[in-house]
Design goal:
TIM Barrel; two-stranded antiparallel sheet
Length: 318
C-alpha cells in the first residue's frame, strides 16, 4: 500500500511513523528489533530507514600519522527494510540518496527492492561531506533528488539505465520527497525552494515529509504555500525531540532551522540533559497534539536510534 493510500484509509485517525538509522557496521540487527519491539506497540503506518553515503575516516598508523580511509559506516538499508517488513508485517520506506552512488548502483538497489516487494521510497539528495559540509555527487551518479526521481519513474515505465535489458519489467515505486518549512539550507530563498519542490511533484512525487521544525506555525504556513503553488499531495510533518543542551547550537547550525525562544529558555533552565529530554518530550507532545487537532493526523518522528523518550511521546499523543 502506498503512503497516500495509508493516509486516505486512516480516516483521520492519529498515526505516528518512525525513522530509524541502520546500525553501524558490525552491529547486530537485534539493535533495530529491540527498538522496534517497543515502537510497534503504537501500530505505526510505516517505518522509514535512512541511507548513508561513504565517509572519510582517518586511521592512526604506528608512527602516529593519520591515513585517510573511505568507509561506509552504516550499510544495510535494503536488508534492514526487508527484515523489518518480514518480521513486523509493516510497510517500510527506505531512503534512496544521490550521495556516493552511481546510477547503475541506484538501479541495482531499486531492483533488489522491487524483488523484495518494497515499493515505497523516500528520495533525497543526501548529506554533504561531514568535514566540509559541501555535497559532491558521484561523477556517474545524480547531483539532485530530481535526477533520482527521473530514474525511478523511468523504471516504472520499463526504461532501465542499463540499455540492454531484455523484456524489462515495469516497477511500481511510489516516491516521497523532503520538504523544508524553513527552506533547504542551500536554496537562495523560500520561493525558489518551493519551485524545486513543485518540480519533484510534477515529476511524480506522491507525498512530502518535512524537515524537523519546532514552531507549528512554520509548518502550517508551509502547507499553505504548497497549496497556493499547486502542490496538493499529502504533507507529513516531521518532528525531532530535543534531548540535549547541545541541540540548541547544533541543530540550527546543521539543519539551518530556528528554535522558538520559549523552548530555548526552558532548555537553558534545565540542570542537566535528563531534564532537557523531559522538556523535549513535553514540547514535541504539544506540537503533535496541535498538529493532529489542526487536521494533520499523520506525524513522522525522527528517532536517531533512541527510543525511551519516543515511547513517552507516543504514549502522550495516541
Amino acid at each position: 500500500m502506498t503512503i497516500p493510500e495509508l493516509i486516505s484509509q486512516s480516516n483521520g485517525k492519529a498515526r505516528i511513523s518512525y525513522e530509524l538509522l541502520p546500525p553501524v557496521k558490525g552491529s547486530s540487527i537485534e539493535t533495530i528489533f529491540s527498538t522496534l519491539d517497543r515502537l510497534m506497540l503504537f501500530q505505526p503506518p510505516f517505518i522509514n530507514i535512512t541511507y548513508h553515503r561513504e565517509e572519510v575516516s582517518y586511521v592512526k598508523q604506528a608512527d602516529g600519522s593519520l591515513i585517510p580511509s573511505v568507509v561506509r559506516k552504516r550499510p544495510g538499508t535494503v536488508g534492514i527494510a526487508a527484515a523489518i517488513q518480514a518480521r513486523y508485517k509493516v510497510d517500510v520506506v527506505p531512503h534512496i540518496i544521490c550521495g556516493g552512488f552511481t546510477k547503475q548502483e541506484t538501479e541495482d538497489a531499486l531492483i533488489d527492492l522491487d524483488f523484495l516487494g518494497i515499493t515505497n521510497l523516500l528520495v533525497v539528495r543526501g548529506d554533504g561531506d561531514k568535514i566540509t559540509g559541501r555535497f559532491t555527487p558521484n561523477p556517474r551518479g545524480h547531483r539532485y533528488a530530481s535526477g533520482l526521481i527521473d530514474q525511478i519513474m523511468a523504471m516504472n515505465r520499463g526504461i532501465y539505465h542499463e540499455q540492454y535489458v531484455e523484456n524489462p519489467t515495469r516497477t511500481k515505486f511510489s516516491v516521497g520527497v523532503a520538504g523544508y518549512p524553513e527552506k533547504h539550507p542551500e536554496s537562495p530563498n523560500a520561493e525558489q525552494d518551493l519551485l524545486f519542490l513543485k518540480e519533484k511533484v510534477d515529476m511524480g512525487a506522491e507525498y512530502i515529509v518535512t524537515q524537523m521544525f519546532y514552531d507549528n506555525e512554520l509548518f502550517f504556513n508551509f502547507v499553505k504555500r504548497c497549496r497556493k503553488a499547486g502542490i496538493h499531495i499529502p504533507v507529513i510533518p516531521g518532528i525531532k525531540p530535543i534531548t540535549t543542551k547541545e541541540h540548541l547550537n547544533m541543530l540550527p547550525r546543521t539543519f539551518h532551522l530556528s528554535i522558538p525562544e520559549p523552548l530555548v529558555r526552558e532548555v537553558n533552565n534545565c540542570k542537566d540533559n535528563k531534564q532537557v529530554k523531559e522538556v523535549g518530550v513535553q514540547w514535541a507532545s504539544g506540537q503533535i497534539k496541535e498538529l493532529i487537532a489542526a487536521g494533520h493526523p499523520f506525524v513522522h518522528i525522527y528517532t536517531m536510534g533512541k527510543v525511551d523518550h519516543i515511547v513517552k511521546i507516543s504514549e502522550n499523543v495516541l
